[in-house]
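Postdoc handover notes: sequence design on the structure in folder B. Input tokens:
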């Protein structure tokens, strides 16, 4: 169960847009769908040859490269 109010303008209360609802979940159907799930394949690894995680370094290098690219244009 949940309730809420929606408004086109945040500073104006609109009485007609107040709602009260209930979400109904078909658990059997969800279970069937979940059984058909497949694992998402790994497309890249951030481990170097020694097994060290290089995610942070990769993110920082990409960040620096984006900044350089922006400065050039």
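Designed sequence:
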């Amino acid at each position: 169960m949940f309730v809420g109010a929606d408004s086109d303008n945040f500073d104006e209360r609109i009485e007609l847009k107040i709602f009260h609802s209930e979400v109904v979940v078909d658990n059997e159907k969800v279970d069937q769908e979940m059984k058909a799930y497949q694992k998402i394949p790994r497309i890249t690894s951030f481990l170097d040859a020694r097994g060290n995680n290089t995610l942070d370094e990769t993110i920082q290098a990409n960040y620096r490269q984006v900044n350089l690219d922006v400065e050039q244009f």
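Context for whoever picks this up: The chain is about 35% helix and 10% strand. Don't rerun without checking with the PI first.
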